[in-house]
Amino acid sequence: MLLFAGDPHGSYEHLFPFLQQQEERIALIILGDLQLSDCSILEKLSQYCELWFIHGNHDSKTVAAFQALWGTEWKTRNLHGRVVEIQGVKIAGLGGVFRGQIWMPPNKPLFFDPIHFCQYCPQDRIWQGGLPLRHRTSIFLSDIEQLEQQQADILICHEAPKPHPSGFQVINTLAEKMGIKKIFHGHHHENFDYSPFANRTCYQIFNIGFRSLATIEGQYLLQGVDDR
């Protein structure tokens, strides 16, 4: 069973009742903004499921959040920039967000890839020999080009495609090039309903919102409300 989890923002207790009651093998895919301070909760979750994720914008807000995902063995579970077959389904990952300092579609990108950005970045902003911490979760054109040469069944992303009011057409174009059948995205917390627009695309789109959980059919098992 494939399950898709919306932005946890550091809280995971809502997931355990669903993971613990399932008798079949579960693969849980988190759609960004894990917002961790360490990896202990990932270890706990992995006792009940096969765990995968992409990063969101909050995953480079602090050094601790970044190190939890990229500084440990859990970095091998980040689906960003690749296609992995999980329970017989080919899943492509596009983590992170668009930022104006690098690329804000539909405008042309200012920088093609991290190396290009670092060539023009002031040295006092270079972090650990590369991108500034904030931009470790920024999307570059090179990320899109890396994926569009591949084929997959599902695209998971943090940003939204169109017709979401805050979506990006470049994600739709990527999905079409990859032969995608379904898009699951996080980032937007309200569980936007794409069903009125279903006839506009040849694939289905699902917004799995704040601390929400859904099946591969897009059926919500839990719809969270961001009342923080």
Q: Give me the strand/helix succession.
A: EHEHEHEEHHEHEEEE
Biggest sheet strand line-up = 3-2-1-9-10
- CATH superfamily membership: Metallo-dependent phosphatases
Percent in helix = 10-25%
Shape by Cα distribution: globular
Q: Specify the structural class.
A: alpha/beta
Largest sheet: 5 strands, mixed
Number of domains: 1
Radius of gyration: 17 Å
Uncertain parts: none
Q: The CATH topology is what? A: Purple Acid Phosphatase, chain A, domain 2
Summarize model confidence as the mean pLDDT: 95
Number of helices: 6
State the CATH architecture.
4-Layer Sandwich
End-to-end C-alpha gap: 30 Å
Query: What amount of the residues lies in strands?
Result: 15-25%
CATH class: Alpha Beta
Quick structural gist:
With 228 residues, the chain is α/β, with parallel strands linked by helices. It has helices at residues 16-21, 40-45, 63-70, 114-120, 141-148, 169-178, and strands spanning 2-5, 27-30, 50-53, 83-86, 89-94, 154-157, 182-185, 204-207, 213-215, 220-222.
What key attributes describe this structure?
20% helix, 228 residues, five-stranded mixed β-sheet, Purple Acid Phosphatase, chain A, domain 2, alpha/beta, single chain, 10 strands
